[in-house]
Amino acid sequence: MKKIIILIISFLAGNLVFAQHARIVTSGTIEFEKTINMFAVKKTVMGDKPDPFEVQIYDAYKSRMPQFKKMASTLVFGDNKSLFKPTESADNNLSLYGDAMAMQFNTVYNDYTTNTTVLQKELAGTFFLVKDTTRKIKWKITDETRDIAGYTCRRANGVILDSVYIVAFYTDKIWVSGGPESFNGLPGMILGVALPHENVTWYATKVTDMAVPPNTVIPPKKGKVMTWAQLKESLLKTFNGMGAPGFYRRKVFAL
Prior knowledge:
Mean pLDDT: 86
Low-confidence stretches: 1-21, 93-97
Number of strands: 12
Structural class: alpha+beta
Distance between the termini: 64 Å
Strand order of the largest sheet: 7-8-9-10-11-1-2-3-4-5-6-12
Helix content: 25-40%
Radius of gyration: 21 Å
Largest sheet: 12 strands, mixed
Strand content: 35-45%
CATH topology: outer membrane lipoprotein receptor (LolB), chain A
CATH class: Mainly Beta
Number of helices: 5
Order of helices and strands: HEHHEEEEEEEEEEEHH
CATH architecture: Clam
């Protein structure tokens, strides 16, 4: 009789664990950590033919600064919408060897029902507001999986801005096709993103399944309104004639 009771308890416990794991999440918050390989990024910013003075500054930087910089951000989602924003302040001014990848300048609102986005960029105290369709990314889903923040995620490879290679991991247990920054478009929530050639990653550290209070997921309003095409044109004008550093920063600011 004891064996039967134990078997029943084990069966019920197993079903409970399975039910919890199988729960579909439609609203909540996700904490992300952005990690940048500063040594690699600053070498990229210098270009292929830096002068001796630039090399000297780079070597001095490597000798006194950590290789990796980490920054926190949060994604709130509900009602098939999401709002991504930094949760810690960042210096968004470019110094001589400051660089765009080490900044957090985007607040991103997406409505996945209407396929619309409102993206606010803050650069050196100036705000821009992109109002357009959600960003289109070409994805190819693979069979590779990885556990992120307690969720089994499937890998997808993509391309953004015509040439920037993306590796993303998404879970179909969260029924919102969003992710950090403006990464989206997979059949579930993106919990991990890596731009291997740009030396940066975003990974979820915590997912909280919860009801989101009304008027929480709302678009930002401050900034000069423009489209994706107008943003691209503005960045071309801003960084034109700056060589390798200008090309790199233009690409990063366009993300």
